[in-house]
Design a protein that fits this description.
Radius of gyration: 27 Å
Order of helices and strands: HHEEEEEEHEEHEHEEEEEEEHEE
Strand content: 25-35%
Shape: elongated
Helix content: 10-25%
Number of strands: 18
CATH topology of the largest domain: Jelly Rolls
CATH architecture of the largest domain: Sandwich
Strand order of the largest sheet: 6-3-9-1-18-17-14
Number of helices: 6
Largest sheet: 7 strands, antiparallel
Structural class: alpha+beta
Distance between the termini: 40 Å
């Protein structure tokens, strides 16, 4: 998933032609706004479990966002270090378990190169869609390994890594979703933060005295200080964008895997008469400025606020330990104006 995140960010930043996309997913990544990887939970006791070799179970119901599913792929790793059979070609078939140990439905089957250690991808969208709609039908999937004569071979002899293998090579499911609606940032609890009044007072004093603002807040997980690097003293300046770098761990958001931090920026400065073109003022702000001059005790000045923001792609771990790649709108200030 980290490789997928880096590919997605680089593609957005530099364009498709400068990078080689992961196999079979380049177009899907561009269309999807959320990607979720599901862990293989075959080892967790549950109703109808069969403990059959090659059986895998993925709880896709843990994705609580109802969206359009663009694709779902099973990723399995073949490690030649553990392969005991000599043939260079093996057939891998993936079945949906309809009734454990009794009824199976073939989802996909293909001949793979078994002479090289690598990941292999299998389309299991049909099963994923049925599990999302009818979660009670999710009995998992079964991986079967055969030689070219269609003789079944134990998956460990084929070199297929199961849930007992090395963690970085265990099977997982990846689903690509498209919603077309704005997402809220992952809810992360922050405790013991300073009161708003104390924080406001410290910010006010710091901005008056220095170009470097240090906000000492106690956060639940990190118990660290958050440092805000302010590009300049904004007191008395015109409305403009200022630099603000947020490092997620410094504010206790340890579930964020990537990026480590980002340039969030912020808007600051005065919206005073006359509002020139650089103020990017709305018509309402222009009128409010004039009224403020007439009734300063009643009508406040317009506010300096973002009028153009950019999305941010974030890789994080959800409450069920699934790794999620999603982009969130309105995270990066690109331009400010008087409103």
């Amino acid at each position: 998933m980290l490789d997928l995140y880096e590919y997605s960010v680089n593609t957005e930043r530099h364009g498709m032609n400068n990078f080689t996309s992961p196999k079979n997913i380049s177009n899907i990544v561009d269309d999807a706004d959320t990607v979720v990887s599901f862990l293989n939970n075959a080892y967790i006791p549950r109703p109808n479990t069969s403990d059959e070799a090659g059986e895998m179970f993925f709880d896709v119901s843990s994705n609580d966002v109802v969206e359009k599913v663009l694709a779902t792929a099973l990723q399995v790793y073949l490690d030649t270090t553990y392969k005991t059979v000599t043939m260079e070609k093996l057939r891998i078939s993936i079945y949906k378990i309809v009734v454990p140990k009794k009824k199976y439905k073939l989802l996909t089957s293909k001949l793979i190169n078994a002479s090289v250690s690598q990941w292999h991808e299998f389309n299991v969208l049909e099963a994923s869609l049925s599990w999302i709609e009818f979660s009670e039908t999710n009995n998992g999937i079964l991986l079967v390994c055969e030689n070219q004569q269609k003789e079944t071979i134990p998956i460990e002899d084929c070199g297929i890594v199961d849930f007992k293998g090395r963690e970085q090579f265990r099977p997982f499911l990846v689903s690509f979703y498209q919603s077309g609606k704005e997402k809220e940032f992952p809810a992360i609890k922050i405790r013991d933060i300073e009161s708003t009044s104390n924080l406001h007072e410290r910010l006010r004093r710091s901005m008056q005295e220095s170009i470097f603002v240090e906000v000492a807040g106690q956060f639940a997980a990190a118990q660290k200080k958050m440092r805000l690097n302010i590009s300049q003293n904004i007191h008395g300046s015109r409305c403009d964008k200022h630099s603000l770098y947020i490092r997620f761990k410094d504010i206790g958001w340890n579930l964020i895997i990537a990026p480590e931090g980002y340039e969030a920026n912020y808007c600051g400065g005065e919206c005073s008469f006359p509002l020139d073109n650089n103020a990017s003022a709305t018509n309402h702000a222009t009128i409010q400025t004039l009224v403020h001059m007439m009734f300063p005790e009643i009508i406040p000045k317009p506010c300096c606020a973002p009028n153009k923001l950019k999305r941010l792609k974030v890789l994080f771990e959800d409450e069920r330990h699934n790794v999620v790649l999603s982009h969130f709108p309105n995270m990066i200030v690109q331009h400010c104006g008087c409103q």
